[in-house]
Amino acid sequence: MDLQTIKERIKSVKNKREYLLSLLEQPNLGTLRVDVNQALEELDDLMDEFKRTIPEAEAN
Question: Where are the alpha helices (DSSP H) in the chain?
């Protein structure tokens, strides 16, 4: 997998994170709020690991 493909996939992940954040604003989320929070934490961990692994990719 080349770097450009990885960057595109990371961009897709960032978009999904924004969607999860919008879900948290829903008042009727109920117990799914726990799952959404967990997904956000895992996505943040993934993004941090990506930045540590390929720091120059974030600058582009």
Answer: 3-24, 32-53, 55-59
